[in-house]
Specification:
Family: Belongs to the synaptogyrin family.
Strand order of the largest sheet: 1-2
Pfam families: MARVEL
Protein name: Synaptogyrin 2
Helix content: 55-70%
Number of strands: 2
Structural class: mainly alpha
Subcellular location: Membrane
Order of helices and strands: HEEHHH
Main location: membrane
Strand content: under 5%
Largest sheet: 2 strands, antiparallel
Oligomer: single chain
């Protein structure tokens, strides 16, 4: 739905967000003649649409990413971007609503429905992107818990390399048997016979 909401907002503003008076051929933004209102709505709509496509592709390939650091950064990017875009959609909704309330009815000949649709779907986008924040945070917490549960610090417990026999002290170390301590003479030495 996020792609659809973003598509509706920017297509309504591109299609019928600019109009002209019958006496003039100069186009102006339908939102109180404020060009910034139309540009803002189109800008966040286009960027949100492209970001939705990008994060959809990331979601498809996410299970195939084996590096936990890469996964962590992708989830954090999704979390931060969703938070930012929730805020930007809120600003966009307030800005468009404010400019629409100051728009004179005589300036709007066609495009009033498109303006209302852009306002409505920017409002819906606030909650949709806010829901994405919750999902991204849940995914982040799952990843942190999985990492903490499956990770064991190798230096935490140092196992003994060999188990010892009971009642044997390690203080009385003996030389291993069958060691030859005599100096070997120069020359040929036959191989040992076992």
């Amino acid at each position: 739905p996020l792609q659809v909401f973003a598509l509706i907002v920017f297509s309504c503003l591109v299609g019928e967000g600019y109009t002209n008076l019958p006496s003039s051929s100069e186009l102006f933004c339908i939102f109180n003649h404020n060009e910034d209102a139309c540009r803002y709505g189109i800008g966040i709509g286009v960027l949100a649409f492209l970001a939705c496509i990008f994060f959809f592709m990331v979601d498809i390939y996410f299970p195939q990413i084996s590096n936990t650091t890469d996964r962590k950064y992708l989830v954090l990017a999704d979390l931060c971007f969703s938070g930012l875009w929730t805020f930007l959609w809120f600003i966009g909704f307030c800005f468009l609503t404010n400019q629409w309330s100051w728009t004179k009815a005589s300036d709007v000949h066609i495009g009033a429905d498109s303006a209302r649709a852009a306002i409505t779907f920017s409002f819906f986008s606030i909650f949709s992107w806010g829901l994405l924040i919750a999902f991204a945070y849940k995914r982040y917490k799952m990843g942190v818990e999985d990492f903490a549960r499956s990770y064991i610090d190798p230096s935490a417990e140092v196992p003994t390399p060999y188990s010892s026999y009971p009642n044997i002290s390690h203080d009385s170390y003996q030389q291993p048997p069958f060691t030859h301590t005599a100096e070997t003479p120069e020359g040929y030495q036959p191989p040992p016979v076992y």
